[in-house]
Amino acid sequence: MPLRHRMLAAGVAGALLVPAFAGAALADPGGAGVRTGDTTSAVEKNRVDRVPVPKLGWYKCYDYAECATVRLPLDYDDPKGPTTEVAVLRVKARKAKQRIGSLFVNPGGPGGQGTALAYQAREIFGPDVLDRFDVVGFDPRGIGFSANVKCFKSTKDQTLAMAGMNVAFPVGSKQEAAYIKSAKALGKGCSTSGKKLAGAMSTAEAARDMDVLRRAVGDKKLTYVGFSYGTALGQYYANMFPDRLRAVAADGVIDPVSWAGTRKTASQILDDRMRSADGASKALREILARCAKAGKPKCEFAGYGDPVKNFDVLAKRLKAKPADVEGEKVTYADFIGGVLGALYYPDGFAIVDGIASTLWKATSPKSTAAQAAAARKALAARIAERRTEVKRQKEAAAKVLAKDFPYNNEQDAQSSVICTDGLHPKKAGSWPALTAAADKRAPYFGRAWGWTSVQCAGDAWTVRDEDAYTGPFNRRTSVPVLFVGNYYDPATNYNEAVSSSKLLPNSRLLSSNSWGHTAYGTSKCVTEAVDAYLVAGTLPPAGKVCVGDVQPFEPNPGPPPATKGVADASAMATQANAAGNGTKLPPVATRVPPSILLGTR
What we know:
This protein is α/β, with parallel strands linked by helices. The chain is 39% helix and 13% strand. Strands 3-4-5-7-6-8-9-12-13-14 form a 10-stranded mixed beta sheet, with helices on both faces. The protein has a two-stranded antiparallel sheet with strand order 1-2. It has a two-stranded antiparallel ribbon with strand order 10-11. Helix 15 packs across helix 16. The longest helix has 32 residues.
């Protein structure tokens, strides 16, 4: 899934070298007294502890970082058998004498590069964290700089097979049939050509790799922060190795039971369990309601009537006939995909306003010819600007932290994790009806989110990881796990943070009335709380609710939010820093559907 977040200085005691909860026993957050945590099972001990501690041959890379590669067992049941190469990058602690240890990081996805997040540590994390931790990121097996999973024999084969998936999401029987055909080709490719690695890329394998790497960097316990899908990795580790934790923070939470599924929910598509679409619908409804309340001076879309009603009118208008923008076709799916992408950002409300207002003027029968022409010109400028920005980002990445491979394995890698981790419906042909039902439950976004897992259908994806972890997910960890849930998260529903915190009996939930995907870096309150937890083990009070520093259509005390004009609304690609934040939001890898309004189609 794209990206963000950052840290502020927590102001915790600088001389403290050992976390407050370093011991094996701890006070139960619920106040039930001191309890001892669960221990790593004999099965997992046998798997990971038999692997010799790897010697990481660190070398200087990318100016100030250190890089290494390590070969880890492809199958932990056969530690002396075939291996796969995993890439690791670290940015060393600035104050070696006050160093606590290593902070492992993961930006989500699945498919995000931990190496990239670690490399950006100096721009993301606060002084206390940078002073006290080596920030360590690894690219999960099959991904990024690690040995890549490859589900097609060539780029040509991949391009031809995947042609039907080159839309934000399918609308209508013709597109649905083409999308399913390509999804089945992807599933077949990963189950044959990519089988060796695709069948060994479950989140459990990444957790096992992380435990071996924890030993390799010399840490007795794991300190970790994960965003989005990275929260699933953190929870898998916490449940598989409950006595090997120093601190685990999870922001933008995925409930692992929703992710993996159960016998009872096996026939449901992934988003019917996770309800990402519901979170996106909730965020959009609230933005449109606040737009109406703010009025035209602050929200242009309010100047054309009821924003809630008119958004639906605009959506139906585009569904009936795409907008012709100087030779470009902006479809209903592009519109919804663009709005969903905007909702990932703290100032996304301004982008939603800009996109909706400009498309309204470009398509409304009440617009004058001059107004419609000006709107189309603005849309064309936005599309061109976003494409230029995406191209610039890719070129910059190629110079810094990316391989110059013509084969793009992002979809292969993401699918290899999603499909091997969880249970999915048996027939890909059932997706049209299932996503249509989801769209009724969660207007506009049920289809957008629902179609992301069709390649995992039983008649498409057949390779399995026999060592995938399926639970339990309610182990009592040796230290509290900190969950951060954002009320208006469009990708990881706030309810997932609530349910995850209830699963782990020794955990703490920090809620935030924030906007965008994940809350870290968008709320000074959240950022300081996470800092304090990672550095000193200090938990926020039970029931604590933070507030995002940027609120829709309200004065922003920090840097200005994205402007409302569509041509300028590509400010969504810039960092929407929260008040008082002097650094960037961390890149959180996401699964936004490709949209012409995002420059990704």
